[in-house]
Each structure stands twice: as structure tokens, then as C-alpha cells.
Amino acid sequence: MRIEIAFLVAMAVFSGTAASAATDTRKLSPGEHAVFERLLCDRPTMQGTDLTCAALRGYPGDPGATAGATLSLDSISYGSFSKAGAEEAYLSYGSSIEPHANNFGGGVLLTRAGSDWRLVDWYPGGQMDDCLALPGEGKTKMLCLAGYTGQGEDDSSIWLRELPFDHDVAVLKAQDQRGMGSDVTPDACGGTAAVLLSIDGLERSKSPTAFAVAPITYAAAKDVADACKAGRFADVKERKGEVKIVLEQGGAKAITPLTFAPTDY
User: What CA–CA distances, in Å, run from 234 to 35, 185, 228?
Assistant: First the structure.
């Protein structure tokens, strides 16, 4: 009975959402969890805080490969992701079957089918957890903050994304190699420019002169040079700042407070 009530409430809340305007990503409500989990997860069971599935419905490849998979629905947005005018939802997920190369998750597209929803496709590695929907007609475009960690390096970046993700455009990239070891000379030591260490958030701007703002952590050129000379880049001095993101000609551009050294990805 509780699930049925959640389903009816969810349907009332979702009606007419997607086609009218794309939405920024956000956490799912309990009603949304109840509706979408049953569409993606075959015979779901809860084990502690983990949702375990007998299989992931419609997942590409051998269905048996998803047996016993855990699934977490991390965020949702509504829009016209596959084509203009479509009423669709895009969910970002984490799953035990996704490798580190996919950042342990991906995304799934669903479309409205009458008063219900229908699974369209899975996008392994296609997370859109922290995104802002761009204004305008046509297919939905999203400005997204992403992150990846590997071998002591922390990368963060902002991308302009659009399904099926084959023409994503990098707007801003940060690279933090301090975790590689205090005695390691990172790529940042090869030049004399400031280094953007991390992009710490993404939110809509309250000023009409920008679409979004992103707080950042960086190292000034002199601090980079001093740390590299001492052979201890891990101890480089941090500074805080802010980047503005403006929209122009269907794209997005980062307005940085100073010039940063290019990353190697």
C-alpha cells in the first residue's frame, strides 16, 4: 500500500515536467525512488542501505552478468535528452558492476509512456550527478561538474554535455597531483604558470553577467615555482578563487581570474 501511494504521488508530481523545461540535477524523492527502482531493478531487495537486484533490466550485454548487482540512484533531471520535445528523465547511478574506468556508475534514460515511464537505454560511465540545465529549445544540454581519482591524482572538470555524449566539450579542467607523493615532481613543475588544483562546486550565478559560478582552489605561479624548487609539490600553498561560466553561441566559456597551466587529460 505504501508503494502504491508513493507511485500515485510521484505520477502527479512528474506530470508535464519534462517537455516544459529541463531541470537541474537533484536527489531523488522517495516517490521517485519507488517508481524508477522498480523499472531498473529486477526483484529488488534491501541489504542494509544497498539495493540489490536479481538483474538490471535492459542493461546492455549478457543479463546474467548483472545478477546480484547493487544499484544506487544518485540524481535525476528532466528534459528532452534524446530529441527536441521528448518527455524524458535521466538518472545517474552507482553500481557494483561498473569498473573504475566508468567511475563506478553511469546513467539511464527513461521516456514517458502515457502515465508511466519506459526504460530507453543505459549509458555506463555517463554520470550527470551535478549539472545545470542550459536554457533554450531543442535537445537538452547540461553544464556538469565531474571528478575522477586514480593513482594519487584528483581531477575535476566542467563539461558541456549532451546525449549520447559523443560531442562533450570541456569548459574547465583542474588537476591535483599532490597525492602522488611529496617528493614527486609533477607535470605542474614543467612551467611557470599557476595551477588549478580543484573545482569545488558549480551553481547558478545570481548575477546576470554569468550563467554559473564555480569556487576553485589553485596555486599561484610563484608558489608552484617555490614548491617545485624545494621538491615538495604536496606542500604548495593553496589559494581560493571563483570562475564565472558564460554562455555564448550555444556553448559555454570559463572566465578565470588568471591563466592556468594546461592539464594532461
Answer: 46, 9, 9
